[in-house]
Amino acid sequence: MTAMKRRDEVLQRNKGMAKKHPDVLIARYIEEIPRRGVQEAQIRRYGVAVWAVIGYLKGVHGDVRQTAEDYEMPLDAVRAAQAYYRKHRYAIDARLAPMLYVDRA
After folding, report:
1. How much of the chain, in percent, has pLDDT values that exceed 90?
2. What is the 3-state secondary structure (H, E, C) of the chain?
3. Domain span holding position 32
């Protein structure tokens, strides 16, 4: 399946989708997995770490649609990552911090 066709299918699936409760989105799309002694969350069926989605969202100024298109996942999967982030902000920000630091020396 081509990336363009898959993207179109994702967009079609999400057309007119009602806003869901954050806990429902988390339960549907997020899975926690132990990794190197710490608990890490990823998007179920896509294998993308939640911290990566959140970091990307920050890079595209919170554009959920752009993030969903670029990662070729449903809008609700990105919304689930946002909901998970709201519950685990400090841990995810700590994971992102080394990548956001820019040495201006």
Report:
1. 60
2. CCHHHHHHHHHHHHCCCCCCCHHHHHHHHEEEEEECCEEEEEECCCCCEHHHHHHHHHHCCCCHHHHHHHHCCCHHHHHHHHHHHHHCHHHHHHHHHHHHCCCCC
3. 3-100
